[in-house]
Design a protein that fits this description.
CATH architecture of the largest domain: 3-Layer(aba) Sandwich
CATH topology of the largest domain: Carbamate kinase
Number of domains: 2
Order of helices and strands: EHHEHHEHHEHEEHEHEHEHEEEHE
CATH class of the largest domain: Alpha Beta
Low-confidence stretches: 139-143, 196-208
Mean pLDDT: 88
Strand order of the largest sheet: 3-4-2-1-5-7-8-6
Strand content: 15-25%
Structural class: alpha/beta
Shape: globular
CATH superfamily of the largest domain: Acetylglutamate kinase-like
Number of strands: 13
Helix content: 25-40%
Number of helices: 12
Length: 353
């Protein structure tokens, strides 16, 4: 099997941001166990910013981008050093890969990234992936590492995605505030849980939370990949996830799969605006593979340029996302008109229903 395991900041750093070597060692022990069983493993690891806070002696996580980017560079080197040392105990070689959003959008970059990861696995290495926070040109929350892990899993055709966190899985309510909350052990591929909004809150030391993990699970499911959300400290959590034990919350793979580009459009990209269409346009998009034309557009919300990702709604309900071929100003003038090109080409359109 090919396994992608993502671990969050709160699971490998303490409250001051210092790297918890015991947690790294435990994860690497489990990676080694999988390798002995003949499985390939890619680790997606958060923690660079938190480790950077401790490395440079700050009392708390800064809020400005230049400082966040700077300390992430200091933290990343220490994070990879810890992985290399702990993997080295098992005779394994770690290989750092820093990625950004364009690595999943630009075709050439995507192919290069996929080729590099596949070759590293062939060479017996353990890729250690993180977002390239030090030179990110947006907020350090692009896809957090949960969604990046799902994109990585899609690109290498992984068999299972394991999202390791500081919770035992997905609960019926927040167990921190509701004593009646119970663990959800299994989510079917048609379960509404794959589309709900969860509390985005977490430990405060990372950039994700349960909401981003549910998005990542949905992305994996729509990639034909089974995923698991489980506690990072659970003994044998990786082996259990691979053997399909119920070690947390397991999400079944969907029978519908999306290519990486459409997966990014559907779940990873932040929408820049919204397009509202009439019922006829919605029916045309739902019934057959066609492009969205200006004639079906009733109104536009937000300001965006050509090439931006937007949500597509009817009656207040979002039913699709797409990569627009017109900017918002041009689209406002074209709305309701015929014979002037398309708004979203069918190859850049994802229907949710």
């Amino acid at each position: 099997m090919r396994v992608v395991a993502k671990i969050g900041t709160a699971s490998i750093t303490d409250t001051k941001g210092a790297i918890e070597r015991a947690a790294i060692a435990k994860l690497c022990d489990e990676v080694s166990d999988l390798r002995k069983q003949g499985h390939e493993v890619i680790v997606v690891s958060s923690g660079a910013v938190a480790a950077g806070v401790a490395a440079v002696g700050l009392s708390e996580r800064p809020g400005d981008m230049p400082t966040l980017q700077a300390i992430s560079a200091a933290g990343q080197s220490r994070l990879v050093e810890a992985y290399n040392q702990e993997l080295g105990r098992h005779g394994l070689v770690g290989a750092q890969l820093l990625v950004g959003s364009m690595d999943f959008v630009m075709r050439n970059q995507y192919l290069h990234l996929r080729s590099t990861m596949n070759r590293l696995l062939e060479l017996g290495c353990v890729p250690i992936v993180n977002e390239n926070d030090a030179i990110a040109n947006d907020e350090l929350r692009y896809g957090d590492n949960d969604r990046i892990a799902a994109m990585i899993a899609n690109s290498v055709h992984a068999d299972v995605l394991v999202l390791l966190t500081d919770m035992d899985g997905v609960f019926t309510a927040d167990p921190r505030t509701d004593s009646s909350a119970t663990l959800v052990p299994l989510v079917r591929n048609d379960d509404p849980l794959l589309s709900i909004d969860a509390d985005a809150g977490g430990s405060g030391r990372g950039s994700g939370g349960m909401a981003s993990k549910l998005v990542a699970a949905r992305m994996a499911s729509w990639s034909g990949i089974r995923s698991v959300i489980a506690h990072a400290s659970r003994k044998g959590v990786l082996s259990g996830s691979v053997s399909d034990e119920l070690v947390g919350t397991t999400f079944e793979a969907h029978n519908r799969t999306l290519a990486a580009r459409k997966l990014w459009i559907a779940f990873a990209a932040e929408p820049a605006g919204a397009i509202f269409v009439d019922a006829g346009a919605r029916m045309a998009l739902m019934d057959r593979p066609t492009s969205l034309l200006p004639a079906g557009v009733t109104s536009v919300a937000g300001e965006f340029e050509s090439g931006a990702v937007v949500e597509i709604s009817v009656g207040g309900t979002v039913f699709a996302r797409g990569l627009v071929s017109m900017g918002s100003i041009e689209l406002v003038g074209a709305a309701g008109l015929s014979g002037i090109g398309h708004v979203v080409h069918r190859d850049d359109l994802v229907i949710f229903e």
